[in-house]
Amino acid sequence: MAKIWTIVFFMLAAFPAIALAAPDPNEVKAIKQAAPVHLIGTVIEDEMLEQIDDSNFPYQERKMVLQITSIVKGLEEADASSSVEVHYTFIPSWLEMEGGARMDIAKSDEIEIWLKKEAGVLKPALSGNTVVHLYKNEKRPQHMLLPATTVPNFIKSKLSAMPLGIIVAVLLFFSLFLIAGISKRFSAR
Questions:
Q1: pTM of the predicted model, to two decimals?
Q2: CA distances from 55 to 19, 129, 152 (A)
Q3: What pLDDT sits at residue 58?
Q4: Would you say 166 and 137 are in contact if contact means Cβ atoms under 8 Å apart?
Q5: Between the chain's N and C termini, which has fewer beta carbons within 10 Å?
Q6: How far, in Å, CA of 64 to CA of 42, rounded?
């Protein structure tokens, strides 16, 4: 049995570690400093522009209207009492994703946001990593509900979200236990 555990240990150690990490804080800081627009304001509107119903990665393109309370940088043509439209991508919380922070916006949120101009509209410089909530409305809307799935589709979606190395490691681990159990029965006879 000690041989089996040794083999399992070395097999698991042989698989590379897979990290699904957020961006480096220094990188986020640099992106914030380089962002041409930096505002503080209150979200007064939040609406969907388009919903993408891709079975692997559903999301929404949304637009918020931010009532500006303070202009830290950029937008020389605006004043502290005007509003600005900000386009962003909403990814539902039930969808697994790698890396950075999601955009979590609701009406009445008070936010500090770093923006860039892209295709003629203002967008967050680095998604949710460049949004800081100063006040978060407790009533959070559920923009996209979890689709009703059957058990096989649920299992399939969870397996497809897992890195291949982990799936192979788990299958090898259970295979070794199965082989160890069968060999123990035959050796007992």
A1: 0.65
A2: 24, 26, 15
A3: 85
A4: no
A5: C
A6: 10
CA distance 99 to 144: 20
Q: Is 97 helix (H, G, I), strand (E, B) or coil?
A: coil
The answer, yes or no, to whether residue 138 has pLDDT greater than 80, is yes
Question: Can you tell me the distance from the alpha carbon of 136 to that of 158, in angstroms, rounded to the nearest whole number?
Answer: 30
- Please report how many Cα atoms fall inside a 13 Å half-sphere around the Cα of residue 158, on the Cβ side: 7
In the 8-state DSSP scheme, what is residue 18? -
Residue 56 burial (10 A CB sphere; 0-12, 13-18, 19+): exposed
Cα gap 51→61, rounded to integer Å: 6
Assign 136 to helix, strand or coil: coil
Give pLDDT tens digits for 13-51: 555 444 446 778 889 899 999 999 999 999 999 999 999
Residue the block writes with tokens 């203002």:
122
Strand partners, 72: none
